[in-house]
């Protein structure tokens, strides 16, 4: 009996300790340091965001040196709880419907309904110990024409100021544009931080913010390689994706030379995407493959965050060609013809690598801004000859647009990928 009492008391004590620990709300502030530079402070100490747009692979994210994740909506509390478990903070998105999704900002009932719903979400999550920053809307400015959306952003930001003094407010825009900066400065005074989703436009983002007189700090809320919307297209409108190795170089340079160097106004960043998604191809933005294997982009981010490479590195595809024509050019071949695909890659510290090839129909899509795209199914094809870095295969007998992928993996599954679109006619 005494033993049972002690056990019960122990369980009650453990639960109370857990609740107490879990209920510690962090005080997050935007301050200026002694040099006059903006800093984010967490409970009084400087906190530089080393983050990723992530919903899984948290263990590897932690090992790689990250301290924060960004999620785009409040539809899954498990992301916050998982982040807290791994010691991450969270920039938590409030999903303000963009006009391009059918939202009418002249419809006062729809607007009010959305605001009331999101206010309740704020009340629900404002005391979560993983919360870092509120992200009010994501790219609501993309393909929009009704500027009333900024009124909704301000109403929510002002409400957060009233009910949650512990967490700053941010709204996220696509690229940097003087009109967007003007509207946010004028109509959203309760916004503390500007979030920038910048890919190719990251090259001049910091300079442009200063040029457009943005006088508050910013977070690079999405960044990575140039997006499909910025890519060169073939004559049949297929988007040309650079090999992983070149994309890795681009990530590294952008972090070191553009993000990390802006000590004056940048509070940190969230790389995109710590996961996998279809966006023109299945490999464009994702730092993982569809089967969960990490690509060399993960190695790059560890070097950015920790200043050291992982002991085991992914191989790196530096070049790919079809019938001796490089990946930047158009490739038009006949049906059922012998075609040669060649790749050039670095092994790094891998004694053994596996090379695989997959053929798909071209995935044409006009969707933008993270809208969901469907991945095509692979096509069977015949390889008639193969060596370490080259195959000869028979092209499809049906006319149309295709894309062939080459994957190089080490024994741990760390991967690099490259692809070439081609037209059979």
Order of the strands making up the biggest sheet: 4-5-6-7-8-9-10-11
* CA gyration radius, whole angstroms: 24 Å
Q: Class by helix and strand content?
A: alpha/beta
Shape: globular
CATH topology of the largest domain: TIM Barrel
The overall pLDDT average reads: 94
How many DSSP-defined strands? 20
Low-confidence stretches: 1-22
Would you mind describing this structure in some detail?
The protein folds into 2 domains: 22-306, TIM Barrel; 316-424, Immunoglobulin-like. It is 27% helix and 28% strand. It is built from 9 helices and 20 strands. The radius of gyration is 24 Å and the shape is globular. The termini are far apart.
Give a short overview.
With 425 residues, the protein is of the alpha/beta class.
């Amino acid at each position: 009996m005494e033993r049972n009492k002690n056990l019960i008391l122990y369980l009650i004590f453990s639960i109370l300790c857990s609740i107490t620990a879990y209920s510690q709300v962090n005080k997050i502030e935007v301050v200026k340091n002694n040099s006059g530079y903006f800093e984010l402070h967490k409970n009084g100490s400087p906190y530089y965001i080393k983050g990723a747009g992530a919903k899984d692979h948290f263990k590897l994210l932690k090992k790689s040196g990250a301290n924060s994740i960004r999620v785009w909506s409040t539809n899954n509390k498990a992301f916050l709880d998982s982040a807290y478990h791994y010691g991450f903070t969270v920039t938590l998105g409030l999903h303000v419907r963009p006009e391009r999704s059918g939202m009418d900002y002249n419809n006062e009932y729809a607007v009010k309904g959305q605001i009331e719903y999101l206010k309740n979400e704020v009340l629900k999550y404002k005391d979560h110990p993983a919360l870092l920053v509120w992200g009010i809307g994501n790219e609501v400015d993309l393909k929009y024409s009704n500027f009333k959306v900024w009124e909704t952003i301000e109403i929510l930001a002002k409400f957060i100021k009233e009910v949650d003094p512990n967490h700053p407010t941010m709204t996220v825009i696509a690229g940097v544009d003087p009109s967007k900066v003007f509207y946010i400065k004028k109509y959203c005074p309760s916004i503390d931080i500007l979030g920038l989703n910048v890919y190719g436009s990251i090259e001049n983002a910091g300079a442009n913010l200063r040029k457009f007189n943005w006088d508050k700090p910013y977070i690079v809320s999405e960044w990575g390689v140039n997006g499909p919307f910025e890519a060169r297209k073939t004559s049949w409108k297929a988007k040309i994706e650079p090999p992983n190795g070149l994309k890795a170089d681009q990530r590294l340079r952008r972090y070191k030379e553009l993000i990390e160097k802006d000590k004056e106004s940048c509070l940190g960043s969230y790389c995109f995407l710590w996961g996998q998604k279809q966006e023109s191809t299945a490999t464009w933005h994702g730092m993982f493959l569809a089967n969960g294997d990490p690509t060399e982009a993960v190695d790059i981010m560890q070097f950015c965050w920790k200043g050291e490479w992982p002991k085991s590195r992914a191989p790196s595809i530096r070049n790919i060609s079809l019938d001796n024509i490089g990946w930047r050019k158009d490739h038009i071949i006949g049906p059922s013809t012998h075609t040669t695909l060649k790749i050039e890659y670095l092994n790094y510290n891998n004694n053994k690598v596996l090379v695989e090839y997959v053929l798909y129909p071209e995935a044409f899509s006009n969707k933008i801004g993270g809208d969901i795209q469907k991945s095509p199914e692979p096509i069977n094809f015949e390889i008639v000859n193969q060596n370490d870095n080259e195959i000869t295969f028979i092209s499809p007998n049906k006319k149309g647009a295709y894309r062939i992928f080459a994957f190089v993996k080490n024994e741990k599954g760390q991967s690099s990928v490259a692809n070439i679109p081609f037209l059979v006619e």
